Amino acid sequence: MGHQTHYIHPDLKLSGFDGTFYKADVLFEQHLLVWFISGETKIIQGDKTYWFGAGDTLLFPRNQLVTVINYPKNGLPHQSVVMHLTKKRLTDFYARNKVDIRPMQPPIFRTFDQHPLLKSCLASLIPYFELNEPLPDPIASLKIDAAITILRTIDTTIDHLLANFDEPGKISLVDFMEQNYMFNMRMDKFGYLTGRSLTTFKRDFKKTFQTTPQKWLTEKRLELAYYQIREKKRKPSEVYLEVGFENLSHFGYAFRKRYGYAPTEIAG
Which of 28, 137, 230, 240 is 20 to 30 Å from 14 at the Cα level? Predict the structure, then answer.
């Protein structure tokens, strides 16, 4: 099967994967509410790592960089229900439910473990994925509004995240890149998150770091890999994904080119 996504509505999908693992550096342009049905998920954000299993629920905030690695477990594929909380839908919701919000810096993803209210709401979507036609929008809207209402009930600060529609402003390149260099994002996405066009991002980057973004990113990722392997005694196969490489052989080639020997020669 590999990786498959089944949409019953533009904002509702069932995601599945039955390979060895599926890894992606992601930047969501809208909030995602996710309920894990089976399998295991590893999420890396900055210097923190989180694990989630069947029954757990979490909310991914928009415009946040994270690395997600999904694994099958106990003979079952990785499977999850995903609800998109779009800007339009949230704008409409909060037009009917006025709130005063305050800025949240930085907005991090929220975990709700196996809260029965959220679990029952998202589990009720499962039968709809057997439909032979799209789920009518009025029904989808009812389900999504119910999920937002539940989130507001169990997390009294969630409005400050969901009702904040500001776009990223111009921020320090040094601070942002030092915190996020391990994410494999397109340059225009890095530019957007730092409040710059692609052209301005490249110009400011060259002025700040005296090199190109790609060369700097490769160097920083190799330095982190070297530290993890030598000092933390981790295996190359354990770190190459986390530091931003997509392929183990390419990581080995780049490492040897930078340090003059293979990463396995310092692993122990």
Answer: 240
